[in-house]
Amino acid sequence: MAWKVGRVVSVAPSKTVVVLVERRVQHPVYKKYIRKRKKFYAHDENEKASLGDLIRIVSTRPLSKLKRWRVDKIIEAAEVKK
Fold first, then answer.
1. For FRET with 77, which of 17, 42, 51, 60 sits at 20 to 30 Å CA-CA?
2. What topology does CATH give the domain 3-76?
3. How many helices (H) and strands (E) does the chain have?
4. What would the pLDDT profile of 19-28 be if each residue is shown by its tens digit?
């Protein structure tokens, strides 16, 4: 089972979160490290994830046109600003 860790950047659709996953890869020629980012749509059944949370998502069967991931657990909750 494949999993990824990323930050929640949107919770707009119902029972869906958009997760930004960032990884560092080395350039094949210049050997400099580059940050690559990708957004994934994940299913959040209980709607517990909020904006800015660090979460782990796991791959699952296709749930909709864009959703192929499911929220596994919330690793770190975002700070609540007052």
1. 60
2. OB fold (Dihydrolipoamide Acetyltransferase, E2P) (2.40.50)
3. 0, 5
4. 999 999 999 9
